[in-house]
Predict the 3D structure of the following.
Amino acid sequence: MPQPATSRRAILAAGGTIGLLHGTTRAGAQPALEPRVVIVTSFSRDVTTPFVQAFERANPGTKVEIQNRNTAAAVAFIRETRSSPPDLMWASAPDAFEVLKQGNLLAQPRIDTAGIPERIGGQPTNDPDGRYFGFAVSGYGIMYNTRYLRANRLPEPKEWVDLTRPVYQGHVGISAPSRSGTTHLTIETILQGEGWEMGWAQLLEMAGNFAQVSDRSFGVPDAVNSGQYGIGIVIDFFGLSAKASGFPVEFVYPTVTTLVPANIGMVEGARNPEAARAFIQFLLSPAGQQVLLDPKVMRLPVRQETYANAPAGFPNPFTNPSLGARVRFNNDVSEVRYELVNSLFDRVITFRLRELTDAWKAVRAADTALGRRDNAEGRRLLNEARAKLTAVPVTEAQAADPAIAGAFRAARPDRPAAGRQAQFEEEWDRHAVAAYAEAKRLAEQAQRAR
Amino acid sequence: MSATASRPWSARLRIEASASQVAAAAIVAAFLLAFLVVPVGRVFLTAFAAAEGGFTLVHFADFFRTSLFIESFWNSLYVAGMSVVFASLLAVPLAVILARYRFPGSALIAVLGVLPLVMPPFVGAVAMQLIFGRNGTVNLLLMDWFDVRLDLMEGLNGVIFVQSLHYFPFILMNLSASLSNIDVSMEEAGQNLGARGANLLRTIVLPLALPGYLAGASLVFVKVFDDLATPLLLNVTNMLAPQAYLRVTSVGLGDPMGYVISVILVVVSVAAMAGSALLLRGRDYATAQRGGGGLSQRRMTRTGRILAWCFVVPALLLVLAPHAGILLLSLATIWSFSPLPDGFTLAHYATVLRETPQFLTNTLLFCGIAALIDVVLGVVIAWLVHRTRLPGRALLDLVAMSALAVPGLVLGIGILRTYFDVHLPGGDSLATSWIMLTIVLAVRRLPYALRAATAALRQVHRSLEEAAENLGAGSATTLARIVVPLMAGGLAAAFVTSFATAAVELSATLVLVTRDVDAPLSYGIYIYMQSAAGRGPGAALGVIAVVVVAICTWAAHAFAERERRRRSRTVEPRGAA
C-alpha cells in the first residue's frame, strides 16, 4: 500500500522548514503522526528501550514497534518486503545503509540537521543525498579484561602495533570484516593509514596473536567479558557499555582510528512516514542525544553540547582533535575494494588462522633462539620467513582494478570481470597455505641454524 | 521390481492405492510443496543461475575446484562420523540401563537425557565457554590445581565434543523407544533356546533395536553435518555448513557459492538418510505379539547397580554442565575470568518476567501446535512409506527429511519471498504472522518426528493391521485404532523432540518474527544476548525455556509409561486366551 507520492512530497517540504530549535515534534503546524512506527534494528534491547520510552513520552499517541534482527537479516528483510516495508532501519554499519541505498530502498525524508557538524573526525556524518543520518559516532579500539591481563601478567595494550608483540600470542580476538561492517572499517582504516602493504603486514603479524576470528561482532566483547581471551578489537560502545555494566574491562582508542557514524534511515515506501520522520528528528535532537549517555547505551553523540553532560573521562571528538583525525578516510578507495578486502582477509587470516598462528609461533621461537646465539644464516632465514608471513597475494593496484575487484561484487552485465570470485579465492587460499607452510619450515631451520 | 515397473501407471495406481491413501499423500505433498519445496527452490535457483541469466553448472564446478571447500567437506564428514561414535558411547549404555533394568534413576535419565537438545542459542554458547572454554571453570580449576589446560573447545575435536554432548539424546530417545517396544516373548524365546547374557543381547535385543538406533544415529549424523551454531561458536570455519552460512549472510554479497554449498548439504543429508534406510531394507523388525510391554525389566545385582551409577552420574554431570552454566549465569551478577560468578542475584528473572511474559506463552502455543502437526504428518508419511505401495512414496520421505539440511535462514528468506504478498484478513502479511512461524517450525522439525514415527511403525507387525482389515476396518480406522495406539511410546518421543527443538529454533525465527508480541522465547534470548547487560536476563529466559521443556518431557514420558503399563495389564490376558 504505497503512499500517494504527491502528498508525501508536500509533507516532506513542510517538514523541512521546521527548525530543531522549536523542539522536534511538537511544532503546531506539523501534520499529525501516525499511531505507530515500525523500526528494524540491529541494536540490542538495552539500547533501543531508552530511546523508545523517551520518544513515546514526547509523542503520546504514537507507539514504536521494534523488530530486532542482525544487520544481514534486516537488509534481507527490507529487500524482501518491498510491498509493505518497515518504516525505519536503525543500525551501526554504514555499509548496510549503502547497500540499501544502492538498491533504492531508502527514502529521502528531509531531516533538519542544523547544529550537527557535517564531519566528525574526518568522516561525513550524514549521507550526502540525505537518505541516512548519523545519530552517534563510534570508533574502533582495544578492549581488555583487567583480571585476565593481571593473571597472565600482560601489559596493557595502547596501539595497534602493540598487538603484534609476541607476549600477546593467543590472547587477542577480532570479528571477521566480512561479518561485521565495523571491523571492516577498522581494517580499511589500518590499510589506508599505514598503506596497503605495511597495513597488511601489520594485520598479518597481529593475526599471529589471534585466539579467534569470530563471526559475529558481539562474540568478541562477549569473550573478553567472560575472559575466554583477554584482548578484543571492538567498537567503542561494546567496551564502554560492558564497563558500565560492571565487567572488569577497559577500552582504549589507538591513534589510528576512524570515527564512524551509526545511522538511521527511512525505508522507501514506509507506511508511517510522519512518525518515522519524527523519530529520526527526535534522535538528532538534544533530548534524543542525551539518551546516548545512558550507561547501557554509551555512544558518542553527534551534538557537541551534549558532551557537557557526559561523565568524566568520556571520549570527546570535539575537544580531542587527535581522535579519529589522523587518518583521512577515503570512501572511494574503500568502496571499490570493499568485498575484495573482506574476501582476502577471510582467505589469508580467518580460514587459515591455525596455519598462520603456527607459523608465527615458529618465527617467534626462532627469534628467541637467535637472541641467545645470533648468527647471520639464521637471521637471513628468519627474515625470509617473516617476508612470507607478511605479504598478501594482491597488490594495491590490483585491488583497485575494477576488472578484479569487480569479480567480488554482485554481477552486473555492464561490468565484465576478469575472472570469477571463486577462481581468485582458490588462488589466494593456495598462496596462503603454501606461504605459511614455507615460513614455518624456514623458521624451524633458522632456529637450528648455527 | 521389474515386474511392477512393466505394468502401466494407471494399473499400478488402481491396484495398489486406495482413495484415502491417495488423498493423504496429496495433502502431505501439498504441505511440503507449499512450505518447503517451492520457497527453498526459489532461493536455491541462485545456485544454478548464470551471471547473464540462464542455467549453469559452473558454480558447482567451482566448488569442486576449490581446495578449501573440499577440505571443509571432508572435515564435515569426519566430524559428523566421529560425533555419531561418541554420542553412541554415551547413549547406548544409558538406553540399555533405561530399558532393561529396574533402576531407580530411570526417570531421571529419561528426563535429563533430553535436556541437552534444549540448548538455547547464544546462552548455551556462552555457558559452554564459561564451563569448558579455554578459561572456563574446568580449565581455571585445572590450572590452579594441576597447571594443565584441556583444549576441549578447540578445533574439530572441540566440535565433536560439543556435538556429541548436544545430540546424543537423539540416539538415546529413539533407541530406548525401540528397546521398550521389543516384546518380552522374543527374549523368552531366545532364552528358551539357550541364549544368555551377552549372547542374548547380541542375537535378539540389539538386532531388534536396530531401527531405533539407526533412526537416532542418522539424525545425529545429518544434524552434525548441517549444524552451524556449534562450529561458529567455536570459530571453526573450515567446515561446510559454516562456509555456506558465511556466504549466504554476508551483507550485500550476491554470490551463488553459499547456495551451491546449501544444495550439496541437502544432497549429502538425504543420501545419509537413504543409506540408513537401505541398511534396514529387506529385513523385518516387527513383532506380531503385542502386550509384553517391552523387555523384561530385571533387577540389577549390587555390582551392576554400582557400575550403572558410576556411569550414569558422570555422564549426566557432563551433559548437564552447560545447563548448570546457564543457571549460574542467570543468577550471576558479574562472571568474568573466574571459576564461579562474583555474586548472585534474582534481578534477571525479575527483569524478564516484567518485560517479556508473552515470550513463554507464545513458545508453548507455537511449538505445541508445530509439534502436533509434525506428529500427524510424521505418522502419515511413515505409514504411506511402509504400509502402502503408493508410487512416489519414498520421495515424500526424502523431501520431508531434506528439511533437516535446509538452513533456517534459506527457508526464512524463501518463505518471505513466496508469501509476503499474501495478506491475512487483518491486512498483515501471512509470511510474518505467527501462523507462518508455526508452520515453518513444523517444517523444520518434521524430520525428527518422522524418524521417530518410522522407527515406531517398523516394529508394529503388519499382521495386526491385516487382522483389523479382515474384521472390516478401513485403512483410516486401522491407522487410528490399531497402529497409532501401538506406536504411542514412539510418538511421545516424536512430540518431545519436535517440541523441545522447536522451542530453541532461531535462524528462521529471526527472519520471520516482526513483533515482540508474536515472538517466541528463542527470539527474546537472542535480543538479550546482544549486549553485555543482557547476558543475565538472556540466561534467565534460557533457564525458563529449559524448565518448560523439561516439564513437557516429563509429562510425555509419564504418558508413554502409563500407556505401556496399561497395555501390558489389559492385553496380556486376552493374548493368553
Remarks:
- The mean pLDDT of chain B is 80.
- Residues 302 and 308 of chain B are 10 Å apart (CA to CA).
